C-alpha cells in the first residue's frame, strides 16, 4: 500500500488539498499520514529567577496548540466521510519542532512514497506556482511532492504533462513520471517547444522517441518563439491533469511563467504540479 504524507496547518487551503489527497489515496489504494507541527517561540526575560513563569508560558502555548489539534482532527475525519472516503486509513501525527525536520524523520521512519501539500499562494514565482512551504520542503527531501492549488478538484488522472528541453538530465525524471502514470493507467505527454527549425534538434527528438517508445507515451512538438504560450496551450489542449517538473527545471518554469503571470494564474489555478527529485542519468 502506498503511503502519502500530508502536512497541514488546518487552513481552508490545506483542507481543500486534503480532499484531493483523500480521493487520490482512494484511487491508488494508499493511506495518509496527516502531520500537524508547531514551533515554540524563544522567550527571553530580563527578570532573573523566574523559570517557573517561562515554563508556564510554554505549557500554555503547548496546550493551546494541542486543543486546536484535538478540535481540528474530527473535522478532517468528517471530510473523509462526507466525500465517501471513510475507509482511507488516516494516521494523525502531532509534534513540536521544525516542520522540515519532522517531515524528514517521518519519511525515513514510515517509508513515505510521496508528499501532498496545498499551495498557499504567497508572493514570488515559486511560491505562486508551488506554495512557499512546498518549495522549502521540495529543496530538502528526495521523494516526489504533489503541490495542489486551492481550486484543484480531483478527477481521474488521465494525462501527465512534462515539458523538456531534451537534455539528458531530464531523462531520469521522465522515466519516473512514466512509471507513475503507468501505475495509474494514465498517459504521459511530453512537450518540446522549438523556437526555430533545427535539423539537429529533430534528430535528437527522434532519438528520444525511440528511447521512450512505450504504450501511453506521446511526444508533442510545437514551433513557436513564445514558450509560455506553447506550454499553456499544451496544458489546455491535451487536458493535462498534472504538470510534472524536476527540481532543476524550476529556473526554466520561472522564465516561462513570469513572462505571463496572468495566464499562469488562470491556467494553473486548478492544475497540480508534481515535483520530482533531480536525478543523474546513469
Estimate the global geometry from the Cα principal axes. elongated
Mean pLDDT score: 80
Number of helix segments? Answer: 10
Unreliable stretches (pLDDT < 50, length at least 5) are 122-130, 256-263
Percent helix among the residues? 40-55%
Ends apart, CA distance between termini:
29 Å
Q: Count of DSSP E strands?
A: 10
What gyration radius follows from the Cα positions, in whole Å? 21 Å
How would you spell out the order of helices and strands?
EHEHEHEHHEEHEHEHEHHE
Strand order of the largest sheet: 3-2-1-4-5-10-9-6-7-8
- Estimated share of beta-strand residues: 15-25%
Structural class: alpha/beta
Largest sheet: 10 strands, mixed
Short description:
The chain is an alpha/beta fold. The protein is 45% helix and 21% strand. The protein has ten helices and ten strands.
Commentary on this structure:
With about 280 residues, the protein is an alpha/beta fold. It is about 45% helix and about 20% strand. A ten-stranded mixed β-sheet has the order 3-2-1-4-5-10-9-6-7-8, sandwiched between helices. Strand 7, helix 7 (about 200-210) and strand 8 form a beta-alpha-beta unit. The relative contact order is 0.14.
Q: Topology, pairings included?
A:
Blueprint: E1 2-7, H1 12-28, E2 30-38, H2 51-82, E3 90-96, H3 99-110, E4 114-118, H4 125-130, H5 132-138, E5 145-148, E6 159-163, H6 171-183, E7 187-194, H7 199-211, E8 217-223, H8 227-237, E9 242-246, H9 250-258, H10 261-267, E10 273-276
Parallel strand pairs: 1-2, 1-4, 2-3, 4-5, 6-7, 6-9, 7-8, 9-10
Antiparallel strand pairs: 5-10
Amino acid at each position: 500500500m502506498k503511503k502519502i504524507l500530508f502536512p497541514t496547518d488546518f487552513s481552508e487551503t490545506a483542507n481543500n488539498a486534503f480532499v484531493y489527497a483523500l480521493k487520490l489515496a482512494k484511487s491508488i489504494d494508499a493511506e495518509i499520514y496527516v502531520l500537524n507541527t508547531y514551533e515554540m517561540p524563544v522567550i527571553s526575560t530580563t527578570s532573573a529567577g523566574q523559570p517557573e513563569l517561562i515554563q508556564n508560558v510554554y505549557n500554555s502555548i503547548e496546550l493551546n496548540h494541542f486543543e486546536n489539534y484535538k478540535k481540528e482532527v474530527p473535522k478532517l475525519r468528517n471530510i473523509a466521510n462526507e466525500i465517501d472516503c471513510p475507509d482511507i486509513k488516516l494516521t494523525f501525527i502531532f509534534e513540536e519542532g521544525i516542520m522540515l525536520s519532522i517531515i524528514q524523520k517521518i519519511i525515513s521512519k514510515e517509508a513515505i512514497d510521496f508528499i501532498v501539500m496545498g499551495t498557499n499562494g504567497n508572493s514570488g514565482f515559486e511560491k505562486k506556482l508551488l506554495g512557499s512551504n512546498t518549495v522549502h520542503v521540495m529543496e530538502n527531501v528526495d521523494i516526489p511532492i504533489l503541490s495542489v492549488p486551492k481550486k484543484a478538484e480531483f478527477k481521474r488522472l488521465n494525462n501527465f504533462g512534462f515539458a523538456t528541453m531534451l537534455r539528458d538530465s531530464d531523462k531520469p525524471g521522465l522515466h519516473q513520471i512514466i512509471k507513475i502514470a503507468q501505475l495509474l493507467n494514465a498517459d504521459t505527454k511530453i512537450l518540446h517547444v522549438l523556437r526555430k527549425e533545427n535539423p539537429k534538434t529533430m534528430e535528437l527528438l527522434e532519438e528520444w522517441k525511440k528511447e521512450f517508445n512505450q504504450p501511453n507515451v506521446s511526444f508533442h512538438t510545437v514551433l513557436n518563439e513564445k514558450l509560455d504560450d506553447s506550454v499553456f496551450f499544451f496544458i489546455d489542449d491535451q487536458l493535462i491533469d498534472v504538470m510534472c517538473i524536476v527540481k532543476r527545471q524550476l529556473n526554466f518554469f520561472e522564465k516561462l511563467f513570469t513572462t505571463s503571470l496572468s495566464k499562469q494564474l488562470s491556467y494553473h489555478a486548478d492544475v497540480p504540479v508534481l515535483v520530482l527529485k533531480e536525478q543523474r542519468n546513469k
